[in-house]
Design goal:
It is a single chain. This protein is 41% helix and 16% strand. It is an alpha/beta fold. It has two domains: 207 residues, 3-Layer(aba) Sandwich (Rossmann fold); 71 residues. The longest helix is centred in the first third of the chain and has 16 residues. The radius of gyration is 22 Å and the shape is globular.
Amino acid sequence: MRHFILSAVLSCAPMIALADPLPSWNATESKDRIIDFVAAVTDPERPEYVTPAERIAVFDNDGTLWAEQPVYFQLFFAMDRLAQLAEADPSILSTPTLQAAAKGDLKTVLEDGHDGLIEVINASHAGVSVDEFQNAVAEWLDTARHSDTDLPYDQMTYQPMVELLRYLRDEGFKTYIVSGGGLHFMRVFAEEAYGIPPEQVLGTYTDTTYDSAEGDPVITKAPSIAFVDDKEGKPINIERTIGRRPILAGGNSDGDFAMLEWTTAGDGPRLGILVHHTDGEREWAYDRESPIGKLVDGLDKGPELGWVIVDMAQDWSRIYTGAN
């Protein structure tokens, strides 16, 4: 009986070994390089072996793990929430920008540039407890739909990247989000969408206050930005929060360049991955001239730094988790 069981296990071994860890990736050089890297750093018999404690992988969110067009999804949330708040208190729409945002007039909001965006974020995010804010995000994700795809926003995650995150964890990696998006916003959905728990989400965060005067301690979001987790802020936040230099980093824009540059400059085996949005049929095609997800330095310098430049149109057989 023992020999029968052993024979059965051995007969299944080749099938298990050949299981594709990245089924939504086409058979291209990008896929091969990623799998070869993971195999090298997880095999104790190979010189590139990296201990599990050092297998840290960090990923941007917007444009890397889920879509980001025509603007970051958090801005859509902010505009919808502002409209909801204004129903109870119309006086909060104290400027033309806020009035436009409450009407869903994205064009006018964007014309006001950075200052207009901060104004909308402050009016819709500040003055509430973290718990209240995150409950509002969860309710919005349950009901809101993207105007172009008609998908829930949290189903516009990229299936190939979700597979990559799972594959890395299966091979002993610890995966983190390091994004310019709001920390409290992303922590609502990151675990369900990506398998990344809240404590492994790094992002931009506002000032907060603590108050226990009424006997019920509350942490409240304040109307000011304490830290912007973008560009050079990303490696700074990784060093400050994680305490280890990652061996793998993924991004899609020049906002991620410093994170990938710092990651791949370390000793030993390293891998940088850039998602290049080349698929105008199934998603959006953009790079050098885009106001959202602009990618110049990554395209020009990434190849010579040894980074994998993922061609979305060629390398991915499927785009979203919520649609084929």
